[in-house]
Amino acid sequence: MLKEKIKQLAGTIQEAVVRDRRHLHAHPELSFQEFETSAFIKSALDKLGIQYQSMAENGVVALIKGAKPSENVVALRADFDALPIFEANEVPYKSLNVGVMHACGHDVHTSSLLGTATILMELREEFAGTVKLIFQPAEEKLPGGANLMIKEGVLENPTPQAVIGQHVMPLIETGKVGFRSGKYMASTDELYVTIRGKGGHAAQPSQNIDPVLITSHIIVALQQIVSRAADPKMPTVLSFGKVIANGATNVIPNEVKLEGTFRTMNEEWRAEAHRRMKKIAEGIAESMGGTCEFTIVKGYPFLVNEEKLTANLRGFAEDYLGKENVVDLDIWMAAEDFAYFSQVADSCFYRLGTRNEARGIVSSVHTPTFDIDENALMLSTGLMTYLALKRLGN
């Protein structure tokens, strides 16, 4: 049976996949700088005899065609950029690029997809259809590698009927995966605000226009966007994480810099919230004698898992892993540029469990101590192969 063959092959290549993952982990590269990582992927594909093309500078796209005739196409996506984080793990594969770390599991995604490619090549005489491999750069930084690759035609020639992505999840135990149909992850926008007044001596506030006070009113008032303007059923987050008022105990500054993020799951409400935020902030500043420059850098859209596709894939995952090892995911207000795929094609983004409490592997992504239970790699390669081939109709 197909399932047994895939599981056997996944076990056979496990050591190689772990080796690839450790190499990638030790040699991380930041978004739009992944030149060596891209070269590593191309070298691995060369060894497998898989033809590919470059896209979005460091991106790589390849096709594996089954020997049996079929017009069906499925795309599998993995990202491969790293984060500007100093790794705290003391492991043999610790980052050699100080200050850069694969703290979001993209090394796992890429090594897993290379492993899946290996299995597919072993099975290509036995299946029908085409699997498109998308190795994507720059997930962590706007405008996002997915956006760039789509604009350059990654979903054309041939066009996939489904796009599938997997992402590590340290909240889920190794051996399990998670699915959610419908809206799953939020859109994300960056907010950059400059509030200007008139600085001076703190002991003479009547002679100044205090931008710090104006800013405090703006921060509080903008929370009405979430508590009063947003539909209670619509997930909405507005947070400010950076406030710079470069005065002193006795000095009121001329201006204050404010930075934050806005996230939601509806494009119409997103646009309306942008308008309201600017109007509130600018109105408060003007009413208090100051000015406000409110800049919104629009980021990734929200991510939606197409319901029929997701139900289909979840059923295949239950068949491959056992129903008890497939769990429900909750809405996640983080953002992911796989959302661009989900906005233009039937897509499914599921989660790969990597947690192992007995071994202390519990840290969240985007932290200096993030790591994975590498036993998850055998599951990740085999499951993605099975999902792709079953979706193709095999």
What would you say about this model in short?
The protein has 394 residues and is α/β, with parallel strands linked by helices.
Q: Can you walk me through this structure?
A:
- The protein is α/β, with parallel strands linked by helices and 394 residues long.
- Helix content is 35%, strand content 27%.
- The chain has helices at 2-12, 14-26, 35-48, 106-123, 145-151, 211-222, 224-229, 267-287, 307-321, 339-344, 376-391; strands at residues 52-55, 59-65, 68-79, 128-136, 162-173, 177-179, 182-185, 189-196, 200-201, 236-244, 251-252, 255-264, 291-298, 303-305, 326-328, 347-355.
- The strands form four sheets. The protein has an eight-stranded mixed β-sheet with strand order 1-2-4-3-5-16-6-15, with helices on both faces. The protein has a four-stranded antiparallel β-sheet with strand order 10-12-8-13.
- Helix 3 (35-48) packs parallel to helix 4 and helix 9 (307-321) packs across helix 11.
- The longest helix is centred in the C-terminal third of the chain and has 21 residues, at 267-287.
